[in-house]
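URGENT: need a sanity check before tomorrow's submission.

F., can you look over the D-alanine--D-alanine ligase record below? I want to be sure the sequence and structure line up before it goes out.
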Amino acid sequence: MKIGIFFGGPAREREVSFAGGRTALANLDKGLFEPVLVFVDGRGRFRLVTPDFLQSSSLREALPQDESGFSVYDESLATDTLDATLLELRPEQFRDHFDLAFLAMHGPDCEDGAIQGLLEWYKMPYTGPGLVGSAVGINKILQNELIALANGQQKKTATISRDAYEQADKSQFFQSLIAHLGLPIVVKAPHQGSSIGVVIVREADLTQFCRAVEQCFFTMSIQPDGWSKLSEWADLSAPDKHELAQKMVSLDSGISFPVVIEQTGEVIRHPAEFISRLDTIIKQSSQPITLASLNAEDEVLFEEFISGQEFSCGVIQDDDQVAIALPPTEIYNVTSFDFESKYKLNTTKKRIPVGTTLENNRKIQLAVADVFSRLGINVYARIDGFLTPGGDVLLHDPNTIPGMSPSSLIFKQMAEIGLNLANSLTYLIRQSLRERIRTGKDTFHLKTLLSDLDKQLAHRKLNPLPERVISFGASDEDFLAAKQQYNELAASGTVRPALMYIKSKLESHEIPVNLLFKDTIEELETALGQPRHPLLVETAERAWHITERYV
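Structure tokens as predicted:
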């Protein structure tokens, strides 16, 4: 079966998606699937690329650049810049190149039902939840309401539209939020993922609050009492202006380009053009200027700050659509699990399961599986939440296409039920086919694809691949190299890799899949010397009827 790996996209999470495309390509079982790479550019065009495209350290490095001295995304370049090197693929041509679209994209247009709807129109099956679950999963305001209806949880929230915010007395509005939600206040852009557009306001500081709200609307005001550094534009040096304009390109923390000057409707696509235009505007007028991303949010969500143990819990399902919650991961040693702590810091700590009682871990799993089903999500998802000191489970942010780095939480949790990276991707493809069949569209073709895949899996069970043992010694470097080799061999589809830890001449240990995600030899030895947590044991047993198909 040919698998089109879709990565990139127009959303702010495209760098996360770029890394996810690399993971999918590296870990797809080549004995079952043939990968085809489809880069989705910033304008939403589909382009066939070769594996070399994914070898760059970031998407911006993979893209052609101009001579401006700025590093930009393709929306800032001429519309035909990519045409010379990257072949455009029209949706009606998809079925000529692959049988299923593996979605490694995140955020608006990629995770909200938009790309899913386009693929359904062209009768192309895709991975992950369907239209209903995707639409719910992208909208944080709607999520809060539906989760409360599903499980009765109580969490204080508030919202405001952009128009209402602009007309409001900012100080009075801030004080009313403090009275309703207390401090700290969590400010969120409702349609972003990867914790982009999430700011925690910890003090009764109006300037800090207004900056947070502008960040989540993806706007910037330039005026004497404005909240952004752009208000100091006239006094900045040329290097400072260049640095500020480059920061604006950033998709995770900057407003990004293109931007529109709301007072005139003028669209600016490039940071060099932005510097020139802003110099002219400020010289000619002292009137306030508001910049907005072309994909600015129209509402902002405010939530009370929840004190408790933060967790993230994956959910999968079986052929009967029974939701099975994986062991939850606790995130600790961090003040907030934002984009920086998720992807840029090495100080964030994680443990499976949550450091609490067995009963509380079960309570988390039950709540997560229930919300997964009630919100109309299928195939798989990851749902985040908090366990309060009083033992209450408060859920938020269902993630319908979890991040796909090799160390992503969803893969660590699937390893706890015995699925390695290659197995996990195979599960995702197969279960997605099963769920697409339920839509009643192109049913015979989808059933044929599923039947063929099941025959291949059954044949492999009856005729196991030869085992290849990878031995490693008592150093972190040896452990890391062995894990990389394990994943490469698992994805080759030619052998069954097994890891053997040679501690000494007299002592060795075969390493189960769930311990592949330990970071150091010290962590590995600690895990080997302890009994397995009962939650992990019972979850693996509950999911065995799924796992056994793939291992």
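My own read: The chain has a mean pLDDT of 93. The chain has 20 helices and 22 strands. If you see anything odd, call me.
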